[in-house]
Amino acid sequence: MNTIGCQMNVYDSEQIAKGLKPLHYEITASLEKADLIIVNTCAIREKAEQKVFSFLGRLAGLKRKRPDLIIGVGGCVAQQEGAKILERLPHLDLVFGTHAINRLPAAVQTIVSKKCRIVDIQMADRIKEPDFVANGCEAKHVTRFVTIMQGCDNYCTYCVVPYVRGRESSRRPENIIREIRRLVESGVREVTLLGQNVNSYGKKENLCTFVELLRRINDIDALLRIRFTTSHPKDLSQELILAFNDLHKLCRHIHLPIQSGSNRILKMMNRKYTREIYLEKIDKLRNICPRIAITTDIIVGFPGETRTDFKETLELMKTVEFDALFAFQYSDRPNAAAVRLPGKISKEEKKERLQQVLDLQDYFTTRKNKALKGSIQTVLVEGLSKKQNRVNHSDKSQRLQWSGRTSTNKIVNFFKNDDENASDEDMMGRLVNVKILKTFSHSLWGKTDSKEPTDVGLRGEKSYVT
Ligand code: SF4
Q: DSSP secondary-structure letter at 426?
């Protein structure tokens, strides 16, 4: 299974793997060993789509060597391109869209028995409850994604989501709670709730509000942390802002995509808020929760973006001082309204603007991380650090390096101090206090410490300590 794209695709890939298990398919370590290859794709940017086609093209050699190998492509590119993919890539057997995951096992069985090719890109009006959640997760995981809604009704002019994921539709709260309870029973301690715009959760269907859903999840025993993404600034409610103070399991981090600092460009993007409204919401968040981490998305080079518009984006970045951001060069996407807008920006100019955004953000991220040196942070242990995973950790005399995140979503790699009580076997899923001894641009490093967390601004963190 190859997953390209966002967290929603990661969640979908997990559902795909669970759905194929009864057919005796298991994840393999290499492509060469696979009887079935599924590529779960992303169409949000031109670059991601190019990556999909380049990977699929490379599979032709494998198919020539092993004609029985089944190759399927799912996700947003599959939904967007449909049967055209089979015409372009004759070695593929299956194209399944974003609403066809539940029907995938049946499609694979048909291909095996009838040696045919299948295209299934039929969309539904309502989100289909995943059929495959019943067993929680089999491998030991500390953090998991849970999709609470799919699709989007906002039609930002640069975005394909409403076309490839469909109209907005929310899952029933009782099904979400049941799924999270099962995950928690299997050892999960943190869930990230996924939706294109979680703030409008349940509105269309007249279900509970997003904050009511958060309250119910906050009551689940043994769950330690809740995260969510993404929140549309126009729908960020006062109720949700207050929840950062009220709900002790809700992590002190919000991803709030601004996209541009220019009101003119925001209007052309159909974002339905102004920079003033955005900044007002940031102030409210920081008043309620002073140390909340705020991250964002920025698109540079939207059609018609002048140097003055771009400067306004840089100015907004300086005003907010984001903890981190994802920045992208605008690219035309099929069906998106901005394709028809005049004033396309040259590649060179977009590249230069992107670099300016990244350099400025690097300054803020590094500075914010440096300020944490010497502090004690509560970290949820997610496993061994990446570096540790690369070395052989069967050597019992070797000191293990662990990894986890703070409530504010900062990665912390650390060693256990000599006075740390927890055994290596008990570390996963624990909340530990770590003294930060070194800071880097994208992570922090330290050692466990028996002292209480320094940062009293992060209300609720102390109560996590086990
Ligand atoms: S809110 Fe806008 S950018 Fe986000 S998924 Fe919907 S249309 Fe796309």
A: G
